[in-house]
């Protein structure tokens, strides 16, 4: 699977504009990364656990830098899911992030 193949994508700014619509956001980082900070309301399904992915609505896929989310988006898109990669990941996210208690 090529990392350079085009996938449906948005910037973090475009995702931030959609937050009022309560989009489904799936964070594909490992749990230990997710608990250290994530977009409020996002769900954690690590890249290695994507076989548990079952959504019918459009889903935004995010990770730390955008590499894992692009792989996940390619994988899920090929399987017929309506998924959108978030380019730049949390490294580019400028909004507040949640911390697990």
TrEMBL record:
The keyword Transferase applies. Transmembrane segments: none annotated. It comes from the Bacteria. Residues 19-98 form the Rhodanese domain. InterPro entries: GlpE_sulfurtransferase (IPR050229), Rhodanese-like_dom (IPR001763), Rhodanese-like_dom_sf (IPR036873). Coiled coil: none annotated. The keyword Protein transport does not apply. One of its GO terms (molecular function) is transferase activity. Keywords: Transferase. Pfam families: Rhodanese (PF00581). This is Rhodanese-related sulfurtransferase. It comes from Listeria rocourtiae.
């Amino acid at each position: 699977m090529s990392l350079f193949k085009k996938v449906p994508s948005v910037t973090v700014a475009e995702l931030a504009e959609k937050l009022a619509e309560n989009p489904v956001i799936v964070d594909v980082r490992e749990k230990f990364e997710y608990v250290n900070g994530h977009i409020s309301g996002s769900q954690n399904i690590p890249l290695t656990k994507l076989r548990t992915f079952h959504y019918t609505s459009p889903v935004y896929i995010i990770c730390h830098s955008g590499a894992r989310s692009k792989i996940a988006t390619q994988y899920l898109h090929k399987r017929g899911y309506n998924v959108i990669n978030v380019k730049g990941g949390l490294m580019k996210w400028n909004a507040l992030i949640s911390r697990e208690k």
